[in-house]
Amino acid sequence: MRADIMEKIVSLSDGEHIPELQQYLSSLTDDQLTTVVTNSALKGKDIGAMVKSIFKGSPPSAPEGASRRLLLYQHCIPLCESGDLQTEVASDIIGLLMLETHNLPGPSLAQLASLFVDAIKLGKMGSGKSLELFPTVLTALAATEALSYGKGELSGEEYKKQLINSLCSSRWDPQCVIHLTTMFRDVPLAPEELQFLVEKVLRMFLKLDLQEIPPLVYQLLLLAAKGCKKQVLEGIISYFKEQDLRQKEEQKDGESMEVEVQSIPQDQLRHVEGTAILHIVFAVRLDQELGREFLKSVKGSQGELCPFSIALLLSVARIQRYEEQLFDFLKGAITKGFKDEHLQQGSKFLQDLLPQRCSLAQMILDTVKNSVFGWDHVTQGLVQLGFILMDAFGPKAGPFGKTATEGVNATAKTPTQQACRLGGHILLEGFKVRDCFWMLSDFSLSSSSSDLLSDIVVSAPMILLESSSKVTETFDHLSYLPLATVQGLLKAVQPLLKVSMSMKDALILVLRKAMFSSQLDGRKSAVTGFLLLLKNFRVLGSMASSQCSPALSFMYSSHYEGISIGPFICDVSCAQVQVDVHSRYNSAANEAFCLEILSSLRRCLGQQADVRLMLYEGFHDVLRRNSQLASSIMQTLLSQVRRYYEPEQDLLPPVKLELCIGAQGDQVFLQEPLAHLLSCTVHCLLWYQGMRRSARPNAGGSDDDDDEEEGGFQDELQSILESITRRMIKCELEDFELDKSAEFSLSSVGVKNSIYAVLVMGVYEVLIEYNFTKANYSKSLFEELLELFSRYNKLSEILKEKSGKGKSSKSPRSLLSMGFVSTLLTALFRDSAQSREEALLVLRSSGDFLRYAVSVALQKITQLEETGHTDGPDGQNTDKTFHHLCDITSVLMWRYTNIPCAVEDAGKKEKRCSVSLLCLEGLLRIFSTGQQRYPARVAQLLSAIGSDHEPGNASVTEKTAFYIRQFQRALFTQLNGGEEDFNSKEAQLLVNILSVLSRQLEPSSQQFVQMITWTVKIFKVKSFSKGLLSLLFSLHVLYKSPVSLLWELCQDIHSQLGDIDQDLEVEKQSHFAIVNMKTASPTTVIALVCLSVRPHPVCTHTHAPSLSFIFMCVFPGDATQAAGQQDPVEKALTLQLGTLLTALNELVQTALPSGVCTNTLLGELSRTYTILTTLVKYPQVCVCPLKSLIPLYFQVKLSGSHLTPQCYSFITYVQSGELAGGGADDKKKKKKEGEATATASAKLLRETKAIPNLIYSIEQYEKYLITLSKKSKVNLMQYMKLSTSRDFRINAATLEAALQEHDNSQQTIASQEPEQSQEPKKKRKKQ
Questions:
Q1: Which residues form the FANCI solenoid 1 cap domain (predicted)?
Q2: What is the phi-psi region of residue 498: left when phi exceeds 0, alpha when psi lies from -120 to 50, beta otherwise?
Q3: What is the tally of helices (H) and strands (E) in the chain?
Q4: Which of 167, 224, 522, 575 sits in a 20 to 30 Å window from 60, CA-based?
Q5: Distance (Å, rounded) from C-alpha 544 to C-alpha 524?
Q6: Which residues pair with residue 858 across a beta bridge?
Q7: Is residue 800 a contact partner of residue 807, using CB atoms and an 8 Å limit?
Q8: Inter-residue contact 280 to 236 (CB < 8 Å)
Q9: Which of 366, 357, 362 has the alpha carbon at shortest distance from 311?
Q10: 878-898 helix and 818-829 helix, angle to the nearest 10 degrees
Q11: CA 349 to CA 10: how far, in whole Å?
């Protein structure tokens, strides 16, 4: 029956019997019709023809036809959503319905739209297939002229808006969110409707499963083509940021949290994030407007970055048109983050003012860790970012390709160093998690890249071995690289050479070629590489862990420069590595390999002095790490010493100095560093003898036999050194052609004499160290040692006198080793053994020798502070160097505290620096070195001092405070003594030591408060100013804001120097005794310099852009404060800036002397107005309520009515040359100094740019103030006085005074006597 109905309807339609068709359809009931449609749709047969026939027999103009059409729509829509139909059938039905939608009357469209809305609200749109029809319905509905709505009528467009509002305000089934978003892409939407819809979809993110997020993101991005691009992007980023935070919190509390509370797995979240990033990047590629909105959004929300947004940035950066902009933004954001963090850590005011922000560097590293979950599109951007940071902020090449070395123990302190270190961390972590060995091709060979490569070798050696060709390619460039870079590169790859035969062979081939390079640096690089190989390819018997099996020995005992290399064997190629170690890297092969290298190095002994010097400096380390090469090395040194040794015992001098120099034309140069040769020989001999003595109990009687087998080099070297010592004592300066009449100019003769003098002094130092070590505290041998020193000292004095000639000559670097200096100082000052007292008394009786010993120690400590290492044996060994530093610290501290400078200098009229003063200077350098090079071991350094009253198991702060009190007592004693006993240099050193030690105090500790209290007390009662003011500012900024201190200082300075208006008398004030007529000017400079470098929000003018975060706190987006309440941040910043303006107002009225004072103040005023301009510009950029302008009123009033007029007066004062104090100097002095002052003032005005910069800053401030006044409708210019043209000025007061003076001069002759009896003109008091 139903089939007959369907066939009849179709046949009537095909036969074009429209009236019969209409009549037949009218005869069918609604149930019959819907049943026929359902059966036809389920069978999937002729459903299209059936629907077309019904439409053909239901004219929309007739009420019955319109009703039948509506019935068909109402039945087919749920039918398609039921899921019972085939996909093709449902698509055909929806397509036919869409074609006829525009023929429906308005009421039918309204009913149909309501049907869709109700179905969506009830969650009946599961498949979403019928939703394809909804946009067509809404479009047709919008075209309707009028529709009944309630008791009235609405236009079709308004009715559509009501439907959309109702739909977006209702609850959506999570299953239909994606379908609805897809559907709305085809619906014409007004901007406000689109915004409402986007907000609704973004809110639904939290209700969806993770798997549904990527398709929804895709559809939302397509929807963003209509608008709201920024809102869509920010919503997606905000969602993933929230998910990341939830996941982190759950990960932290994972151990104590129940499984049910756990939300989403980490790997699943990361994969979803990666897919979402791909969708966004694809959309940005196709839509440039979306890319521009993304850039604006990111740049406008620097503080809102998160790992997801950073990953998105790096992915978008792969698009060429955005690459430069995004990487520049990331680079700037990273440096700004480090700068802000640096400022906040250095200022207590900022710490209290601003909340702790999430570190951008940590978020980037989190992005690196997240990239392990298949984020290949992010990895390339991360690698590029890492190299950009290292290239932009790494050590810059200096003259001749040299780079500044920070030392192995230097920590990243400045924002630039931290940014470079972050770049290295990004690449290292990226290599660990992604095995990015392809990035080796991007290595720019620099010192920072070498450090990175070293870390990669330690963490993932086997991965590098798989791409060893990339490493060996870099070897070809060794001859052309700076020496420091070559050293870093070879140190980095050294562990790989033990397990890669091909890599080692490639390196040796390159080094052999470099040995004959025409470039000096190439030959030095070859020596560096060969020495490194000798140190690390040990011969059997040289290892400390020789009992280990050969296969495991390189795993546990391979160390370089104190850094453990770690195990190299992994599961992937364990067997292969073990086979290589057993078969190729055995002891015999290593011995032959090392002897072959030594034969190559012997050729260096005929090259330039720099190459030989590197060889001599490296032999001791080779001998210490590869003791079985002792015989070959010692024989090499012996043969080299013989070339310059005079065997005839009666001839003086015992060395052939003429062979140590070379000449080429008029140029004389050093050919053989003889002193370094002897130093290397002595240290190697002493180490070898010590090793033999330690091994003698186990060696039995074979020692003599071994000496005979080794050629007896010990005896020969000892006899040579003893002969040189004996004859050097007998030598006079004339024997070296060096006497008081010798020339030390820049001529060839003078250069030759200078080289001779340095060589002879070095030989004497080497002999002093050797003979002290061999003397065994013999009195006679110590007397000979003192003779050696007297010869050295005499030559040193002549060299200083001749080479000085009014210039500060730098003494040559001492050849004494750090270990010997430590031993010598301990023996001279702390050794109290009775058996040694008589011998040591010989050395202690010589004041010059004591000064020399401490001076050398000071030189070594300075070198350690600057470079991180010292010359001589074990100078590169961090642990041993620190041990020696601790010993020296203990000795110097004991010497200074037990024999103060006042006691030592009593009765002496020498101008030389006392031993105690040298000890104090050494302590200053040691404490500074400890903080810079050994920040984690400062407590150990302080404990090494070993004071009797030092607290035991105390913190670093307590130990530091203990020694601070000792130096405070010493300084207080100095300041309380008379002028004759006062030693300004000692007091200055004590202040500097206190400044260095105070950095170790915890700002929140009681000891820090005591330090500030003591400093303020000294500051108020004593007039010594050197360093104390800087110390006080550095302490105050860590404890509280220093602007109140600055204000009081400025008042005292104004009181002492007087006013720029000489007719005004300034009220006398004295807050600090340190400010007087002599110290007022330098105090001004120091105070302004401290103000400009301290990390304080109102004085960090170099970081004015960083104030935007502070201003965000001052000008919140919404005025949530209750009436009458002031925001704490706003109040604090207003108070600080107001106090600063008041302090500067005092200074600009002060009669400062010309030069540095006025120039510094002008620069400080410019920076202050720059901050005021930033403060005024910020409310214009960010939409702020009128209430947010309240903090500006006080600043504008203060700057406009007080500071700006005084600034112009001060500029006039500086330019007019009235630079004398407020009436304190007499006229005669002014006339004498007038010409010199005018000349200096004219030169200053020609050279300085401070005045134009200040005027420009003031005018910029006024410009933005006028703009803000117009925008806010608030007259902020009522306190500002507009500046006049400065091209032509007539100062009325000055003109009147000049005319008055002219009239008085006309009457001088007639009324001279009465005029002399007149009282002086009274000054007006400064209010």
A1: 6-57
A2: alpha
A3: 59, 8
A4: 167
A5: 30
A6: none
A7: no
A8: yes
A9: 366
A10: 30
A11: 87
